[in-house]
Design goal:
Length: 258
Amino acid sequence: MNQKTVPSVSRGDLSQFLEANLQTVKINDYCPNGLQVEGIEQIKVLVSGVTASLALIKAAIALNADALLVHHGYFWRGENPCLTGAKFERIKKLIDNKMNLFAYHLPLDLHPEWGNNAQLARVLELTVEGSFAEQGLASIGRATQPGLHTVGDFSRWVEEKLERKPLLIGAPDQPLGRVAWCTGAAQNFLGDAVAIGASVYLSGEISESTVHLARESGVAYLACGHHATERYGVQALGQAVASQFGIAHHFVDIPNPV
């Protein structure tokens, strides 16, 4: 009896596919994008997740993963480059288990189909009318779900879809007009959202100064959680890889309140 062949993709072919689609060389980022830790050559099982934490690495090992695909990897600009402490433990686990680590930060945020902004729009049922802010990282459009007439309505809709109550800065009864958004730590784009006429701006994190600008500008702000807003892009990218090469893919969500 012939043993069934398990589909696999070479590390090089996967790298080429990801680079061709995410166009990392065209995007100015503050971390390296692509293969960050080299592992086994042939990849049969891919695990995706938001951040390459030790918990995610252990979950990938339990799933017999050959590669880990994340949005938040390692080697950020300005951080201590030494492999000590938590960073050492994470990278040692990857190397000991011959697991590849692929990480895509801003290129994944920006992708028009698999990107975090595009996927958040899909989840929240937002039309995409355009982009704005640095490198076009933020998006603007409108909510299409019936019955969303006010900012408060939209806040409750976001809570339902993301399964997390957002922090709303602004009047709940304010009419809902154009919606602007950018996942993750993009609170500093609120000023750009004000300038292009948004009625509400949604992001992951919030700063002290964000509160004042939202109050003074009249543009409501929704802080929905860095992790909560960035769970979808890496899932979509992992699924695209699985469809392209026929390999197994598992998304692992490591809960994070921030």
